[in-house]
Amino acid sequence: MEELSIKIKIADREYPMKVKRSDEERVRLAGKLINEKLKSYREQFGIDDKQDLLAMAAFDCLVDKMAAEETHHVIDKTVFEKVSHLNHLVSQSIL
Q: Which ranges of 9-49 would DSSP assign to H, the alpha helix?
């Protein structure tokens, strides 16, 4: 797979990286969303320190990821229970 050399600017610093062509749009969007989050925190809390802003963004992203994982776990458990119930019903109808 072909890799592209791109630069992503986050918090006024450029980060050169190589990404798969298929990942370029996602990587650029991630950089844009991080910068938007930093701008939002700067305006909301009046914080200018880039390290503090980046730490807050990292923390926020991890909290969101953990919540999504919990949601996926609940969905997986529900699907497993429903499939098990259907299997039970099918096995009873065959007998």
A: 24-45
H helix or E strand, kind and range, residue 83: helix 50-94
Measured distance CA(74)–CA(19) in Å, rounded: 33
Q: Which residue(s) pair with 14 in the sheet?
A: 9
Name the token pair of 26: 């996602």
pTM for the complete prediction?
0.76
For residues 9 and 34, is the Cβ–Cβ distance under 8 A? no
DSSP 8-state secondary structure symbol assigned to residue 95: -
| Interval 51-65: pLDDT, tens | 999 999 999 999 999
Contacts of 2 (CB under 8 A, 6+ apart): 20, 21
Q: How many Å from the N-terminal Cα to the C-terminal Cα in the chain? A: 52
